[in-house]
Every structure is written in structure tokens, then in C-alpha cells.
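Hey, can you fold this?
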Amino acid sequence: MDRIELYRIFNTVVETRSFTKAADLLHLPKSRVSVAVTALETLVGARLLNRTTRSVSLTHEGQIVHERSHTLLASSEEMENLFRSAEQLEGRVRVDVPGRIGRLIIAPALPDFLAKWPNVQIDLCLNDRNADLVEDRVDVAVRVGTLADSGLKARRIGQVAQINVASPAYLAAHGTPAHPDDLVHHFQVAYASPLTARVAGWEWDHAGESFQMAVDWRVSANNAEAYIACALAGLGMIQIPAYDVADHLASGALVRIMPDHEPAPMPVNLVFLGRSQSSRRLSVFSEWLAETVAKGIRAET
């Protein structure tokens, strides 16, 4: 087993925090993963991992090796691809994205990417729940909102404006609210978390402060498609990323309301396992993904 492979296996163990998961991800016997880490420790002359029956963690020396090995692996990948043409850049990339971003922004743009990189295959996974990058073998994911402290690498690519909208039919029946004080006379379409089923409150920012209140509802939805469909049907007001309803606003099917009392913009990040930085294929796709999503979420408001 060459030295580059030792570092690659070691990094995968670190990222998955498990010999078993690393072996599964790399399609290797667990014994080979263990032997590789031991061989690397012998090579560098230091213990790199603290091992228990339940967890794996880095030693001080292991942290140094882990950080520096990314540069080594990236340089190795770059050298291997130095003289390859676009047709020779090949392999699969698995990307996990929110459903509406996948349908409205990424899928329509993919023909241009694949025309440039014809031998790359994209597994496009649309998911309103955040996939586990290790368990689901995801290379890179788009995350909207505040990130949990998961230990994953993250790259901020922009932010998305959130707006308040309702259908003309709803407004004709209930009137148009001008201020949050008016919400006591209105209904929202409630958004229920797909993970916890908790119904979100109505939110807005004003003069640098954030506010939230409960608004009556008659129907809830746990994904963006149903949430928007209920608003179009006149079942209540919704709060939604601007890009999500740009076409409906343009056609008049939805109307923006209370523009001075809208939620704060949400951050948008790419998240990935550390090893994603050491693959030219993943690097090329991640750059394209960042640019494509950043452009797509900048809907006019």
C-alpha cells in the first residue's frame, strides 16, 4: 500500500470517526483500514488516533497530520490530472440539496456542466431533510439556514432573502395585513418540521431586532412543494425564500405582503467531508455548484 493511500485511508477514518464506516465507504475490509492506520503511525513515528470500543479521536500529532495531509492529497490529485483533458476527468459525485433548489436551480443548469465534463456522473439527491454525509455517502451538500456544529467542512456561498406572500384569493377574502398587529385576524399555512413536526412561528425582523408570534392555521405542510401549493390554493399566508416563488410573483399567482416585516435572510453553505477537497472531480463540481446556487438564489425582491 503506497503512502498516498495510507493518508487517504487515515483521513477517511478521521472524517467518519469510525474504522467500520471508513471501510464501508472505501469498499475495503476493516482489517485493511486498521493495518493502514497502524502503518501510517509507524511511518510518521507517532500515535495518530485515540481508539476506544465506541469512538475514534485525533491525538495532537494526528491533528497535525490530518491538516497537512489535505494539501498532500490535493497535490497528488492535481498532479495525476495535470495533463488530462475534460473528457478524461471522470467519476461520480453525490450531491444532496433541498428539493426546490435541486428542481429550480441545479437540474436546469446541469446540461451545461455535463457538456463541459462529459465523463462525470452526478447523483442528484433531493431532500428536505439534511442527509448524513457519511451514512448516505454524500460528497457535497447544500445547506440553507444556520449550520449545526457537526464537524463538517463548510463554505458560505451566499444568503437567501425570505419574503411574505399570499394568493389574491386569500387577500380578497381576509384583507391585506399591513403590520404584524394585523396577523391576529389572519391564517398562515403552517410549516411543520419534517424531523420534529414542530410548527414554526411567524417571524420578522425590524430595526435590527427579531420577532416571532403564533398565527392561526388550518393546514400545515412538511415540505416546500406542499407549502407553496397550499398558499396558491388560498389557504393562508406563507414565508418563503424569494427564489422559490419568483415565477408565481411574476404571474400574479402570489402577492408579496408586509415587505417591511420579513424574516432575516438565511445563510446558504456548501458542506462536505474533508476528503472532498483532495479530489479534482469534486473540486470542479463544487466550484460549479457554488456559482450556480449563488446565482439562482439571488431572486429579485
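Oh, and this one too while you're at it.
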Amino acid sequence: MRAQLLHLSGPERGRTVTYGGASVHIGAAKSNEVALPAPGVEPRHAQIDFVEEECQFHLRAVDGRVFVNGNEIEEVILQDGDRLEFGVGGPMARFRIYVPQGAVCKPVRRMLADARDVAKVSGGAAGTQTLSRDLLTQATPRLKIGVPAVLVVTAFLASWLGGFLGSRPAEVDNAITADTVTHAELDQLRAEQQKQQEALAQLARANAIVSRVQKEWSRGVCLLHGVFRVRLPDQSWFLGSDGEPFEVEYTGSGFLVRDTGFIVTNRHVVAPWLEMGGVVRVLETGAEPTFTHLAATFPGMLPIDVPTTSIRRRSDEIDVAVLQVDAAAIVGVPVLPLHDGPIESADQTAIVVGYPTGLAALLARADDSLVDGLRQRGASFTEAIRELAAAGQVAPLMTKGIVSEVRPDRIVYDASTAHGGSGGPVFGGDGTVIAVNYAILPDFGGANFGVPIRFAQELLP
């Protein structure tokens, strides 16, 4: 199997190129297999690797920003037909999987699963035959020599020997173990094989989870756009220095957690004035903050008005909140799975999904003609978001990192994010939401943190 790129734009536009190596280096440097000397492309921008054990292609960002189907990624499993973009507004290509005639590639985990299915119905001998046939006809040369020899054959051999030794009379058992293998050696072999299986299974699960977050769960993450003013006790608007009503416009993130329309976000996203010292001082005089606009926009859908009366905030300082939109307006939007139990039990992966830098990031990824039209008309935030949504160009970004610390009231991780990403979900390695992202935490040297999801669950009905 080989990686193939149809170059849609950039220096190679119009060309379809098939790359023969297991690794394809992409960047501005001429030494790369894919040389793209273009603005925004780093010398070592990205890399595509074929992982034989999985029969899959991995795309990894190296020194540059990489987008797959409009979503920024750190590393992802590529699917045939994915649209790749190297740098913001940079060269674009369509990824294809080229399979030479006669080539075969069946993942080891699929071989094992098929063999188990056959064994359940037709017995262990038939299952072993199925596995042997797959190894001979469906594996790559490297797999035929390497992984199956250690991982698969020893697994079946150990299992067969274990059953054989356990079922023989004691005197026969003693003779066999004395001449060939001891129970201790067999147990050690089983333990080593189990570790190898677990490592392979963990890698497969992690890749599958990243892919599912990107392709499915990200559609349940919304852009929240709010505009508020301050109403004085006499019901007039508080005025700014220009004599016009003082008005604040901002964006944040949220995610759907109930099919009845409940969305989780940060408290400071639904009450941004609490983070603004000047506004707080005005509110202390008896003034009231008033939303003039609050809407949630999910990928593939138009903005949905959020009734401000649906907002629920905690009475303590924990920075989470929930709000509710009309359930009829979110049909087809996936409800994100929430982690149940201690966070320590989750894998230490952190996958952050949201809308960092808000409208700016959306415009950077949008079609040039659409952006030019918005600029020429002097479109407002609200108009721009609606037109981007109508054009199907509202989608969150995804970054991946490691959880470095778990505290009772916060989870610290290094997955990059920025203002505007506040309120988005943080997925753990088990594929469930473990926290609500709170963007940047300066006290931890630029690390980021989230509020454990249990605090948000306490606000849900």
C-alpha cells in the first residue's frame, strides 16, 4: 500500500503523485518527498507514515500546522479521500490509498478476531487454520516474519500448551515439563505475550478514538457567540467613551451532553462580565448585564438562539455552567459521552476540541471568496458566523497532548489551546469527556487545564 496525493493547490497543483516509501516527508525543503516551497509551509512541516502492524497511514504535524477536512490535527489516521491542508491557507491535497495489484494487508487484530469467531463456531483447529491462512495470504512480508511470530504464534502456542498440560495426567505432565518447558517458563511466556497484546490493543484503541473524536464527536462541539450590554438602574444603557452603548462581543465553546438540548461550557462563557474588573465595578452600583445576542452553532447547522433563562451556574467558584437549546433544533447532533468515575482511571491522553481564537480561526480556514465578500460588506460577527455556517465552514479544531496532573478541582495537560477554546470538551484516552477546557493557565508555565466533568454533571437534571 502506498500514499498518493492529488495536489489541489500549491506548487504541485494538478498533479497526482504516488509515493513509494513507508514515510513521506512534507515541507518547504527540497529534500522532502513532497516539496512545497510556499508561504506558511515549514521546512519540515508534516510526515505521513505507513504502519504495517495496523495497515494504516498516519499523518503527523512536525513543525507546521496541518488540517484534515478543515480540522487542525497533531496526529491522525488518514482515510481515503481526506482533504489535507499544510499551513493556514497553504497548499491543499487529496489523500488517496494506492493498492498495487496483488497487494494485501489485513491488520493483526482483525486476523485474531476472525480466528476467534471461526473457533467459536467450528472449533479451535479451524480457528488456527484461519489464522495460519491469513498470515500466509493476507499479511505484509514484514508481518509474516515479525509480529505474528512473536505476538500471534506464541499466543496460540501458549494457550494450546496451557490447555494440554492442564488436561494431562500428573505423570505425563511431569515428563513433558522436565524435557521441554516448565510451568514457570510457560507462565513467563504468557505474561510477555499478554503485554505485547495489550500494547498493540492500546495503540489501536488510541488511534481509533482520535479518529472517532475527529469524525464524529467533534460535530457535537459548538461555537458560542455572545453580545452583552449593561443596563443601569434607570433602565438606560451604560455608555462607552464614544457615547454609544457599551457592548462586549465574544466567542467561546460548548458541547452537547443531552439530547434534550443541554450544553456544557464554562461559567465565564455564559457570564463573561465576571472576568472584567471595570464592568464588575459598574455592576456593583446596581446595574445589570443583559445579553442582546447568545447563540450556539454546531458544525453543519445554522446558529441556534440560546434562551438566557436556561443558563445554570454553580453557586461556588467552579468554572462550569450549562445552558439549554430547543431539542428540535439539534436533531442529528451527537451527544458526547461523559466519563464516569475517578479521572485517574482514564488513560493519560488529552484531546481538546473547541474554537480557539473564535471567528478569526474560522475565517482563516474559510474560502477566500466568502471571506472577501464578508469584508467588502463590513459584515458583523453575527452575520459572518451565520454565513460561514450556511456554507458549512464552521468546524472545531482538535489538539492532542498528555495529562500531567490530576487535582480534585482541575486537570492539567499540555494540549495546546487559546482563548475562545474555553468551554470545549477534553477527551481522555478512553474516548469519554473527562473535563471542560479552561484555555490557558499562566500559573503553570503556559500549561492548560480543565474542570473535571463531574462538576458539570452536578448541574444537569
